[in-house]
Amino acid sequence: MTELSPNATPASSAGTPGATPGVRIALWSAMGCVVLALVCIAWIDRPVVDFAHAHTQGTPWIQHVAELPAPLFILAWPAFLIVGAVWLLRRTLPAWAITLWLAAGAVGVGSLAKQALKFVFGRTWPATWIHENPSYLRDGVFTFKFFGGGNAAYASFPSGHLTVMLAFTTVLALRHRRLRVPCAIAIALTAFGQLASAYHWTSDALAGAALGIAIGSAFVAAWRWWQSNRAA
């Protein structure tokens, strides 16, 4: 038996396979983040960056907080492959290992998906910090350069750090309710660090959150669907 979590929610017997109330709420949350991102582009992004530039940008401890998800970029694929190999060999894993496997896979897919979207949207960064990129704070540039050729100077949208953090924590929160508060704290710290350091626009963070939630939810729903069919 591979599913041993005492607080895991069983797969739904009707509607979308694996779409339990928790997954549905998560997906609605992702949609809400998309709507809020559109609002922020018009009215919130620039005031928040102006405030961060005046008060918090360049603060060392805030910059460290902003990098909280950085290890996930490096560890995701190795963890996914190693745990997956162990599962194939043993055909059984404890619940925490299954959670780690799903979360690592969600982060890995999220890392690829956010790169694709960065290419599609080609958004300028709030500040100049890579390849002399044109930015709002230095050049007054606030625009999207759609299909911008993969140039890192046009890669602000969506936030990769929020994408991977939400992909990771969505899996954890959906499978283990006791981890929801620590997950919420980790998300809040990451978002605060990214915005207070003027690394990203508010809409970047919301779009990254939406992407991460959607991918994390999809991994959990797919696992529950597979478990349900296997038990049938």
Automatic annotation (TrEMBL):
The keyword Glycosyltransferase does not apply. Residues 99-220 form the Phosphatidic acid phosphatase type 2/haloperoxidase domain. The chain crosses the membrane at residues 25-44, 70-89, 96-113, 152-174, 181-199, 205-226. InterPro entries: PAP2/HPO, PAP2/HPO_sf. The keyword Ribosomal protein does not apply. Keywords: Membrane, Transmembrane, Transmembrane helix. It comes from the Bacteria. This is Phosphatidic acid phosphatase type 2/haloperoxidase domain-containing protein. It comes from Pandoraea faecigallinarum. The lineage of its organism: Bacteria, Pseudomonadati, Pseudomonadota, Betaproteobacteria, Burkholderiales.
